[in-house]
Amino acid sequence: MNDFAASLLKTFGADVVTLGDAISPKYRQDWAALAPVLPLALARPRDTAEVSALLAACHAAGVPVVPQGGLTGVSGAAHPDAGGIALSLERLNRIEAVDADGGTLTAGAGVILETAQNAAQDAGLMLGIDIGARGSCQLGGVLATNAGGNTVIRYGMARDHVLGLEVVLADGTVINGMNALLKNNAGLDLKQLFIGSEGLLGVITRCVLRLHPQPAARATAFLGCADTTATIALLRAARGALGPMLSSFEVMWPSFFHYMSRASGLGSPLAGEHGAYVIIEATGFDDMATRATLEDFFDKAFAADLVEDGVLAGSTREERAFWAVRESPADYEALLGPVIPFDVGIPIAHMAEAVARIESEIPQIFPTARVLSYGHIGDSNLHVVVNLPEAGRNQPHGAVKATVYRIVGALGGTVSAEHGIGLLKRDYLGHSRTATEITLMRQIKKMLDPKGILNPGKSFDQEVPS
After folding, report:
1. Which segments of 304-415 does DSSP mark as H helices, in order?
2. Which key words tag this protein in UniProt (predicted)?
3. DSSP readout, 139-196?
4. pLDDT number for residue 402
5. Which candidate, 45, 58, 49, places its Cα nearest to that of 451?
């Protein structure tokens, strides 16, 4: 048993610290395609004070710490270090308050996103963050990765919902920035340093989130377009016609929709095949008015040849059917086998070229490749998954990534739109950030984490401390 790990166990007790084989496999990896790692110890603090004490001890000893939330990340940011401590925030899971008058929710970092959504709904309000892993991801991880999701086009990224944060620095110092005011211009907005930093600068322990009025009405359409160009024109028209009612605009290219709809047996709401498939969701406060607005937009889009075919949902069941294929990526392993996933951002003006190049250039290198494209095109986010059937579990990540990120960089995009950098994208950060920017990131980390113990070797901290 490592002496430091033994000292943590003695200081904090077996209720907080777990060692060796007693550490559940759950904490040995996240959703990234990386081999499980047994950390030196697992720490599950019960409150901010214990987080502070644990970090202070690790800082003094120079022992690495990897913060963990719901472990739903796909970039490896929460992947443990064999010589370090896995710091799970799952027990900081209390919703402290929902202020209906101020429109805020105060909660611990370990609160499950869906739990927070339900708490807001119980107060007649809405938390505008929504991602597919809502039932297992935790608020701390959502904020540490600045997660996006299906409603970014209406409500923005995770950072757009944060009013205040409590953060523990590497040496155990607690930064209490639990601001609940919509307007607070007193000095630097320090919380922005930690949102999206993937735990490299500090550990988020509590948060104050902004809430919105709960829309009482929703209308959903499933549309078929001729191609990406028509889809982008449809997006522009939808923004003009629906305004703030437009809450989702999701696109599935034939590569994704045809394969996944058939392989899953879910089928299509439309009779024919099209060059792109679009889900449009409008939300409002009057059922008849919301549906009528979307129907009117659909009629005008059809008359303008922006849409080849489409259908509006007449029930909640039909809405779920519209979304079923779009929300099927959790079934990749069963339907495709091992995949190489990409979460990139592309300027909308170059989206058609990006999809065409990625879907053609990868098969030029790997003739049997399956390349599937879909995404939240309304916020410039493109998802691509690649599977090489003959490679089995040994998918050639390096060669495929080099191709995709070269195209993304050439088109002025970003290698990460909403899933962070972590371990899997760290070598490609230079495709989206200049050397000067990366140097500044490292300087900020050096100031806040002088010993480099927080998530070493990930994201912009590419040099693992010795």
Report:
1. 316-324, 332-335, 351-365, 397-410
2. FAD, Flavoprotein, Oxidoreductase
3. HHHHHHTT--BTTHHHH--GGGGEEEEEEE-TTS-EEEE----S---SS--THHHHTT
4. 93
5. 58
The position carrying tokens 């919105």 is 212
Q: What percent of the chain has pLDDT over 90?
A: 89
Terminal CA-CA length for the chain: 21
Mapping DSSP to helix (H, G, I), strand (E, B) and coil, where does residue 74 land?
coil
Q: Rounded distance, CA 55 to CA 213, Å? A: 38
Amino acid in position 109: A
- What are the chain's domains? 3-90 (3.30.43.10), 95-213 (3.30.465.10), 217-324 (3.30.70.2190), 336-431 (3.30.70.2740)
Residue type for position 80 = P
Helix 287-303 × helix 228-242 angle, to 10°? 140
Question: Is the CB of residue 117 less than 8 Å from the CB of residue 134?
Answer: yes
Between the alpha carbon of residue 73 and those of residues 79, 136, 137, the distances in Å are 9, 11, 8
Strands 246-252 and 203-210, bridge-based pairing: unpaired
Q: Three-state DSSP class for 281?
A: strand
Cα(204)–Cα(195) distance, integer angstroms: 9
pLDDT in tens, 202-256: 999 999 999 999 999 999 999 999 999 999 999 999 999 999 999 999 999 999 9
- The structure tokens listed for 91 are 């027990």
Using CA atoms, how far apart are residues 185 and 179, in angstroms rounded to an integer? 11
